[in-house]
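4.2 Preliminary Data

To establish feasibility before requesting continued support, the project team ran the inverse folding procedure on a target of 289 residues. The structure was first converted into the token representation described in Section 3, and no sequence information of any kind was made available to the design step. The complete token record follows.
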């Protein structure tokens, strides 16, 4: 269910800083039309830490309603408090979602055993498929491959990991050691071509918000070992993708979506819109259809 291209959806805002639901609907439609295989609601790209509890639930419910089962919907549920994570699980309409993306506990730097027990608690509290999320550049904590494999072997509903360490040897170790049914997914848009070559099964992408058609085609070619076609699209997209992250995420992707007429160029503090120089670079580099 979670192979191929997932998209970590942005949360568009109006100029008065409220959630822009019509724009969110347009982005959902555009990503599905572009070929994404599943959607991720309430991830980091969605500026979820800036949303109230009520807004988080409303955004998730809107995405579920608007998607109308056209593709699976995964919801981000993670916390540095295990109990807070479990409380969130109870607050969302879990009967309607298709899976959970759960980030490693951040800031408090648990041991590998603490990480294992954290995700054990989640796996035992739900029967939904769980995608672990390893992004040590944000969380400080690195979920090591042996911990991932232990979780995958012990809990049948832990089915995948979004691996965003950028560490290719660690990715190789994950692919080599993980059960055959377990999906190792990329969290780095500019690495997915190389990671598909070593056996990773897809990506949860930021760039697919704004460059879905080319990005999904590139991933599909790579997963089918059509490397010449994949490489051509990779280099077409490489500079545009790198610019999306030049001043943080989702700063770049929101400006690209604004240029496409899909949402306002508004972020909630502490994030701010792209600088005028980055705006020029993104505008000049946007891939042509």
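Position-by-position output of the design step:
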């Amino acid at each position: 269910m979670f192979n191929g291209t997932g998209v970590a959806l942005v949360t568009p805002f109006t100029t008065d800083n409220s959630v822009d639901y019509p724009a969110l609907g347009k982005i959902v439609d555009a990503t599905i039309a572009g070929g994404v295989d599943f959607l991720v609601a309430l991830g980091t790209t969605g500026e979820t830490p800036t949303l109230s509890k009520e807004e988080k639930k409303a955004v998730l419910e809107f995405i579920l309603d608007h998607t109308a089962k056209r593709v699976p919907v995964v919801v981000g549920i993670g916390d540095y408090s295990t109990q807070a994570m479990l409380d969130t699980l109870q607050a969302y309409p879990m009967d309607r979602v298709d899976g959970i993306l759960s980030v490693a506990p951040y800031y408090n730097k648990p041991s590998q055993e603490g990480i294992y027990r954290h995700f054990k608690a989640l796996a035992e509290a739900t029967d939904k498929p769980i995608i672990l999320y390893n992004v040590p550049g944000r969380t400080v904590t690195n979920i090591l491959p042996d911990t991932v494999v232990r979780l995958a072997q012990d809990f049948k509903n832990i089915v995948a990991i979004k691996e965003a360490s950028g560490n290719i040897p660690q990715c190789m170790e994950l692919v080599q050691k993980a059960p055959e049914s377990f999906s190792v997914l990329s969290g780095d848009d500019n690495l997915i071509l190389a990671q598909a070559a070593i056996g990773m099964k897809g990506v949860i992408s930021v760039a697919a918000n704004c460059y879905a058609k080319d990005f999904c085609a590139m991933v599909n070619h790579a997963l089918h070992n059509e490397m010449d076609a994949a490489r051509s699209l990779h280099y077409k997209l490489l500079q545009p993708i790198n610019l999306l992250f030049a001043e943080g995420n989702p700063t770049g992707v929101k400006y690209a979506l604004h240029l496409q007429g899909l949402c306002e160029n508004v972020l909630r503090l502490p994030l701010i819109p792209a600088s005028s120089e980055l705006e020029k670079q993104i505008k000049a580099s946007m891939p042509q259809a």
